[in-house]
Specification:
Layout lengths: L8 H12 L5 H19 L7 H25 L3 H9 L4 H29 L3 H6 L7 H4 L11 H21 L1 H10 L5
Helix pairs in contact: 3-5, 4-5, 5-9
Length: 189
């Protein structure tokens, strides 16, 4: 629960390297990921392009560093004394983490999860290159309503409305956690 600066140099280096991954835009990683997928398929025979598991791995490549950085601030906002008090009361370190710390970071975990889901849901770049007709996502499917000669605006707007329903439903389902999570990790006391 200690901050990156209070421990060893390795913690600080790890934190900064996680933050540095956010400096690279997704388009700079598209060709290397595609080439790795092609080479992996050649070596193992497991298809990675035009598959959903390949798309999930690509989304995780960008979602995990962001999640680590965001959740670190939530864990840092919890006082060490809470964990120590639970251990004095007879909890092991693991049990103190599960029973005391994790319930306090649930809002941060929900907010982070919703944000990462939203990033993946709206991603057109990776989904457009790494999928095909059978594995297309909603965001890439919206492109079918526009062509060089015409755009079906009525159908496009209806499809956009349907595409936003899962996001809106998730937000309303987890609204109390989301609002608490967005403010909880930002406040350091």
């Amino acid at each position: 629960m200690r901050s990156a600066g209070s421990g060893s140099g390795g913690k600080k280096t790890f934190s900064i390297s996680i933050l540095a991954t956010q400096l690279f835009p997704g388009i700079t990683m598209l060709l290397p990921i595609y080439l790795m997928y092609v080479n992996f398929t050649k070596l193992t025979g497991i298809p990675m392009t035009k598959t959903l598991h390949g798309l999930v791995i690509a989304f995780a490549t960008f979602g995990i560093p962001y999640s680590i950085w965001m959740l670190k601030s939530y864990f840092d906002s919890i006082p060490d004394e809470l964990e120590q008090a639970a251990m004095i009361d007879g909890c092991s370190r693991t049990k103190a983490m599960v029973k005391v710390v994790l319930p306090l970071v649930v809002p941060g975990m929900v907010a982070t999860g919703l944000y990462v889901f939203l990033l993946a849901w709206n991603n057109i770049l990776f989904a457009g290159v790494l999928t095909d007709q059978a594995t297309r996502t909603f965001a890439t499917g919206l492109q079918e309503f526009a062509s060089e000669s015409s755009t079906e605006y009525g159908l496009l707007m209806a499809a956009c409305s349907v595409t936003t329903i899962p996001i809106v439903a998730l937000f309303f389902a987890f609204q109390k956690y989301f609002v608490g999570g967005m403010t909880g990790g930002a406040v350091k006391g």
